[in-house]
Amino acid sequence: MRALAAAAVGLAAALALVLTVTAIGAPTGETSPEPLLTTVPGPKD
């Protein structure tokens, strides 16, 4: 019974966190116009 109660409390906390983040929304800002390098640049020919 304690495990069931702990699971319910954890689920409620996770749901509250998700709803809070959803209500706040994404932060405002701009993305960088330059692409990110995913590999090490090689020698320039």
TrEMBL record:
InterPro entries: SPW_0924-like (IPR048001). This is SPW_0924 family protein. The lineage of its organism: Bacteria, Bacillati, Actinomycetota, Actinomycetes, Kitasatosporales.
